[in-house]
């Protein structure tokens, strides 16, 4: 039995969809805060259990009988270390054979502020004694595609990544890799650095957007403070604006680049390229 935490989220759902092509639905557990949010998965035969990262008792119940667990990192930046620790401790109590954790690309050397909680989680995981595999996920191309509508509306794509190259991939690619790892023997102790086969700068991203949309959309490179201010003006919450601006600055320092192709090696095919994902976003 494989438990996927955060199963109502974008990544968790995709992992479960990939697992469904590899094993019976009755052997997959969707662990979610609100079970009603995954009624569609329950209809497919997936086992649904209530689980809250902040409530250890709920995790103990959700992990009962589990052989493997995928800990999808929490979206609550600033609270993730404690939440992840709760999951790891519950996994230890459950005696699972493997816990897979979605970390950050090159977490040990990354210039992104996001690295801190991931490193703390990796350290706790290592000290816990739970057999574990770390999936250090790079950037999702969807993170930048979300800015396509405002870029088209305002006639410019803004950021502060400079000429940093970004080796992103589709969220579905990372989800498939997690499903492969969860269903392949001999994964304990491994650390994967996962990123897309192709890399691009944000200038190249804007050029691809211009080509496919038929509109001239230049990339406007700001400093970190200016980009954060622009995001705040657009209505983003301050923590998210700060996170995105810091991540772009990290990209300018190479924090979102990797050319080892471990992701495509895991999934047995090339990662989904920017052009194809851009075309889908513009449909």
UniProtKB/TrEMBL annotation:
It comes from the Bacteria. Signal peptide: none annotated. CDD domains: TMR_SDR_a. Residues 6-146 form the NAD(P)-binding domain. This is NAD(P)-dependent oxidoreductase. It comes from Parazoarcus communis SWub3 = DSM 12120.
């Amino acid at each position: 039995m494989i438990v996927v935490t955060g199963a109502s989220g974008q990544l968790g759902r995709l992992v479960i969809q990939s697992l469904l092509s590899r094993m019976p639905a009755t052997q997959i557990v969707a662990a979610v805060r609100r079970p009603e949010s995954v009624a569609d998965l329950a209809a497919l035969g997936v086992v649904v259990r209530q689980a809250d990262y902040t409530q250890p008792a709920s995790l103990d119940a959700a992990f009962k009988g589990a052989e493997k667990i995928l800990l999808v990192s929490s979206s609550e930046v600033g609270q993730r270390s404690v939440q992840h620790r709760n999951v790891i401790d519950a996994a230890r109590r459950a005696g699972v054979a493997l816990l897979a954790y979605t970390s950050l690309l090159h977490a040990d050397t990354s210039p992104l502020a996001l690295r801190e909680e991931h490193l703390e989680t990796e350290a706790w995981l290592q000290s816990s004694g739970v057999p574990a595999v770390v999936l250090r996920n790079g950037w999702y191309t969807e993170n930048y595609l979300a800015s396509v509508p405002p870029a088209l509306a305002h006639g410019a794509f803004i950021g502060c990544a400079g000429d940093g190259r970004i080796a992103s991939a589709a969220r579905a690619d990372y989800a498939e890799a997690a499903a492969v790892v969860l269903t392949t023997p001999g994964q304990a102790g491994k650390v994967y650095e996962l990123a897309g086969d192709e890399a691009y700068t944000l200038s190249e991203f804007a050029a691809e957007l211009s080509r496919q949309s038929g509109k001239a959309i230049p990339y406007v490179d700001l400093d970190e403070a200016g980009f954060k201010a622009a995001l705040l003006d657009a209505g983003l919450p301050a923590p998210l604006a700060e996170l995105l601006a810091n991540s772009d600055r990290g990209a300018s320092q190479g924090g979102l680049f990797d050319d080892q192709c471990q992701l495509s090696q895991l999934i047995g095919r090339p990662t989904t390229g920017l052009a194809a994902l851009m075309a889908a976003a513009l449909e």
